[in-house]
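Record filed here:
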Amino acid sequence: METLTRLLVFMTLFSGLVSGFALQNLPITSFEEGYTQLFGDKNLFVHKDGKSVRLTLDERTGSGFVSNDLYLHGFFSASIKLPSDYSAGVVVAFYMSNGDMYEKNHDEIDFEFLGNIRGKEWRIQTNIYGNGSTHLGREERYNLWFDPTEDFHQYSILWSDSHIIFFVDNVPIREVKRTASMGGDFPSKPMSLYTTIWDGSKWATNGGKYGVNYKYAPYIARFSDLVLHGCPVDPIEQFPRCDEGAAVDIRAAQEITPSQRKKMDVFRRKHMTYSYCYDRTRYKVALSECVVNPAEAQRLRVYDPVTFGGIPRRHRNGKHRSKRSRVDGTESI
């Protein structure tokens, strides 16, 4: 009876992440309070305020940190400023995973930032895995409507039992709805939050054509406004501990307002460069959750093929400004 009561509380709480919620109202978690260094020795530096972190990649190693707690659903966010100049082969990752606990059937929700050669812009890749379904990559790639090396921008993951939504500066850029046919491919086990920088020379830029050039090192990624707003999981009982202060209404959290959905549609139309749903080289038949849009499929054909290699575990060691289109439906000047 006690377990059932706690489950009902868990499912009915989580109030706060309603559609159009204000990011600035969510509590910022200090590094000491919420995180532990994962690897990188002195390549991780915590600023005096305790709320800003610098990760460095050099010839010796990358670096990274991980949340102290496991979480089952919630909102996870960071403001990130990416390395400038030549950054080919560099990968900055902000993601959730339980790979250390479930090596053969892990879950994962990824934001990966892929560096580029001088004069070319950083790209974002999002992906999800569930229950070790790494053979079924669900990658999407995008350009951005701003230069992510000039200032901090907020990148966020909303994860509920039925939805995953990726945000950039509070604009939803991707929504993954859980379908019955996905089965265990939808992330459903408690995960930690990871933040890393590492050498992805074998695949990150043009399928490995351009690798990291350490002549331009050190590569420095900066992080602030770290948000862990969800239900931490008791490591012994394996049950989420939710209180009203940290809770979010799961049923409301997955709702995207008409205004947000318009911005998401504009973003995807103007900035998405790859989607697994249209990759007929990898999938002769689109995966079951894909909603195929013929016009979108035709548009994405103009982009070069994307190579996805064997991506190592993130924590194993380790410009010219062009006119952009806004995501509010209007064109930039």
Remarks:
- The radius of gyration is 19 Å.
- The chain has a mean pLDDT of 84.
